[in-house]
């Protein structure tokens, strides 16, 4: 991260005068102190990003941009808007009133620390490490003696920053439905776990443990404890991660308590569908309400299903996932169709101009699907992850790393201000959850590429990289060289330390198997006749994908080479007839990329663009357009990757095009 220079530290000059100038010393916990709970429940585990060195021409520039531009930019914005100052005011190191407009502004700081920590896992960076120690010292100042940490309530419990947070007596936990106290804890814990894994230092982890111990003491059915569940979920997955590294079962039990009591009217006054609190979670079979809250909850439910083997949880997450991918997911992988409540709509309710598709929801959906893959090992979960990542997730950040979409619409008329008052990306939001969520997620992407079980390696995503890790009987080095997603050729070198038998499962993307997404929500108008192929050491293997993977079990030796070819062609996608908004329309895909037409490329005929039966298309690389993309063009229009739209000013855009039969 060459651009992390001392100018970043100057951002904190006015703040750090309150922090001790002495060197911050932390107890370093060796890996032997971690418990076997780390792998509890899941049969498959991701290969840590520390072991995957990305060299990819698609993902590496995006990750570097976040590391070198977006993190520093977000730190500057958080400083300008008082995110750091709130911790100092809460800790009485500075006099003032709460700054910001949201009761969860603290979490922006935590998410920045998490993303930067993921960066440290990938590569050591002493300057960034010192910046994080400074931020963590500021956070510690705002923590109350018993571990409580929500700065707005500590500063003045009678005056929350948002008028929609009710205050009755000014007590903690009195407005759990909307106060975001537990949400703040969830992001704190998640970030602290990643920071600990990155550095081995306990300075942030101890803050999180103190906070989590307060939650354990506070919530439950014992006399004197508070009954209730968080309004906005995420503390559940945070507590489970803390359990995984500490082995303290109280954290797992509290996470399950929160989930078990959602929809329980004997525990609290129910919050309703908006917060997935209308019926018990194990009875839920339709994704409803606020989409970000939902997928965070489903991720926690999947953790519980894995760790407790509770069939009711397993059945529920399967039912919910099936409902989502069959009836409520956009072609871009986006979820949550309604601006009202940032929520899932009814089955098949997928409008384009008014689509919400919050960036945070896309990120949360990746987290959920990754857990499902760790539980079941099915390729379909990575079909969802891949589609989301290449389309409706990275669309949330501009090509310069400083502009953001909160919602991600599939159509623009240049007038409707879809993005919280704007027709294009914004530099920041009063509710800045999406920019900082992108910061925490994008540096973690290398950790999605590979997974492993005892003697099985899963190759889930295709991106150029060099990876080193251990299977059960051997240390293994593996490397990929590919131009994916612009072409479907992948070369993989397999180099075990010693010759030995194990299995490699190579995912055949859904689009290469004529499957847009799992289920029947989308289909290709005409199935491709081209087939994915695989060869080993120059010999074509006559094997077919099983459960979405090419599976090879053999005695592997140094120098073995796998070559994959996933033929790409422009494909027309149609939607299930029950989706009213897309009737007689098609969208275009090339490989995993969904395309859009933008007015700037089609100024004279934008409103008349259509696709007719028999149309032919040409794919062309334009190295100087939108930082280098493949475009689709024919005699009538030019289309660009959806993720890159709105980087050239305000204008019209659409993903779904009128279709005309000859």
Model description:
The protein is built from 17 helices and 23 strands. It is an alpha+beta fold. The strands form three sheets. Strands 3, 10, 15, 16, 17, 18, 19, 20, 21, 22 and 23 form an eleven-stranded mixed β-sheet that branches. Strand 6 (465-470) and strand 7 form a beta hairpin. The longest helix has 22 residues, at 59-80. The chain is globular and about 70 Å long. The termini are far apart. Mean pLDDT is 93; it is low at 1-11 and 13-39.
What is the structure about, briefly put?
With 662 residues, the chain is an alpha+beta fold.
How would the blueprint of this fold be written?
Blueprint: H1 6-10, H2 13-16, E1 45-46, E2 52-54, H3 59-80, H4 83-90, H5 106-122, H6 126-141, H7 151-155, H8 176-179, H9 181-199, H10 203-218, H11 235-246, H12 249-260, H13 291-308, H14 311-327, H15 359-376, H16 379-393, E3 411-412, H17 433-441, E4 450-452, E5 456-459, E6 465-470, E7 475-482, E8 489-496, E9 500-507, E10 522-524, E11 533-536, E12 539-540, E13 549-556, E14 560-565, E15 570-575, E16 585-590, E17 593-598, E18 610-612, E19 618-622, E20 629-633, E21 638-641, E22 653-654, E23 657-660
Parallel strand pairs: 5-9, 18-23
Antiparallel strand pairs: 1-4, 2-6, 3-22, 4-5, 6-7, 7-8, 8-14, 9-13, 10-15, 11-12, 11-14, 15-16, 16-17, 16-23, 17-21, 17-22, 19-20, 20-21
Helix pairs in contact: 3-5, 3-17, 4-6, 5-6, 5-9, 5-17, 9-10, 9-11, 11-12, 12-13, 13-14, 13-15, 15-16
């Amino acid at each position: 991260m060459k651009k992390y220079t001392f100018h970043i530290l100057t951002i904190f000059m006015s703040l750090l005068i309150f922090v001790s100038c002495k060197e911050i010393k932390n107890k370093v916990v060796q890996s032997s102190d971690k418990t076997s709970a780390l792998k509890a429940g899941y049969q498959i585990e991701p290969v840590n990003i520390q072991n995957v060195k990305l060299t990819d021409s698609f993902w590496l520039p995006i990750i570097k941009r976040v590391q070198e531009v977006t993190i520093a930019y977000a730190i500057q914005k958080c400083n300008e808007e008082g995110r750091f100052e709130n911790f100092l005011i809460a800790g009485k190191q500075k006099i003032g009133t709460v700054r910001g407009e949201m009761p969860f502004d603290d979490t922006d700081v935590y998410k920045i620390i998490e993303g930067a920590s993921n960066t440290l896992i990938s590569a050591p960076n002493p300057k960034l490490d010192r910046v994080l120690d400074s931020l963590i010292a500021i956070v510690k100042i705002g923590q109350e003696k018993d571990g409580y940490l929500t700065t707005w309530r500590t500063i003045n419990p009678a005056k929350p920053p948002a008028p929609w947070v009710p205050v009755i007596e000014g007590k903690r936990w009195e407005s759990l439905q909307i106060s975001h106290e537990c949400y703040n804890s969830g992001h704190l814990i998640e970030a602290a776990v990643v920071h600990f894994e990155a550095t081995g230092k306990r300075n942030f982890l101890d803050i999180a443990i103190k906070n989590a111990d307060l939650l354990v003491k506070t919530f439950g059915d014992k006399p004197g404890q508070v009954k209730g569940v968080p309004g906005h979920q995420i503390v559940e997955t945070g507590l489970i991660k803390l359990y995984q590294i500490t082995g303290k079962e109280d954290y797992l039990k509290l996470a399950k308590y929160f989930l078990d009591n959602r929809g329980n009217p004997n525990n609290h006054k129910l919050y309703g569908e908006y917060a997935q609190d209308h019926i018990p979670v194990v009875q839920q079979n339709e994704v409803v309400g606020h989409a970000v809250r939902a997928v965070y909850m489903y991720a926690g439910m999947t953790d519980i299903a894995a760790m407790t083997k509770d069939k009711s949880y397993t059945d529920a997450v399967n039912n919910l996932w099936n409902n989502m991918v069959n009836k409520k997911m956009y072609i871009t992988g986006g979820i949550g169709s309604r601006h009202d409540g940032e929520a899932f709509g009814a089955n098949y309710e997928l409008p384009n101009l008014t689509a919400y598709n919050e960036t945070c929801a896309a990120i949360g959906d990746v987290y959920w699907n990754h857990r499902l893959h760790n539980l079941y090992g099915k390729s379909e979960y990575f079909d969802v992850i891949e589609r989301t990542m290449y389309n409706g997730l990275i669309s949330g950040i501009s090509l310069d790393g400083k502009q953001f979409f909160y919602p991600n619409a599939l159509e623009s008329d240049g007038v409707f201000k879809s993005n919280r008052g704007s027709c294009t990306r914004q530099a920041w939001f009063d509710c800045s959850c999406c920019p900082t969520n992108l910061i925490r997620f994008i540096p973690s992407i290398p950790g999605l590429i590979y997974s492993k079980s005892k003697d099985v390696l899963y190759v889930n995503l295709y991106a150029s990289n060099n990876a080193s890790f251990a299977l059960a009987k051997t240390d293994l080095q593996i490397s990929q060289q590919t131009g994916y997603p612009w072409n479907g050729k992948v070369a993989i070198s397999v180099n075990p330390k010693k010759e030995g038998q194990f299995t490699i499962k190579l995912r055949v993307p859904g689009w290469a198997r004529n499957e847009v997404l799992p289920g029947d929500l989308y289909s290709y108008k005409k199935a491709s006749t081209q087939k994915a192929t695989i060869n080993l050491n120059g010999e074509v293997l006559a094997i077919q994908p099983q459960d979405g993977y090419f599976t090879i079990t053999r005695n592997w030796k140094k120098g073995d080479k796998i070559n994959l070819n996933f033929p790409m062609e422009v494909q027309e996608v149609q939607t299930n007839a029950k989706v009213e908004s897309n009737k007689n329309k098609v969208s275009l895909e090339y490989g995993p990329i969904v395309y859009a037409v933008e007015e700037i490329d089609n100024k004279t005929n934008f409103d008349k663009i259509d696709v007719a039966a028999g149309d032919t298309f040409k794919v062309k690389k334009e190295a100087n357009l939108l930082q280098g993309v493949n475009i689709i063009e024919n005699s009538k229009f030019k289309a660009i990757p959806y993720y890159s739209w709105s980087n050239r000013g305000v204008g019209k855009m659409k993903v779904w095009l009128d279709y005309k039969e000859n």
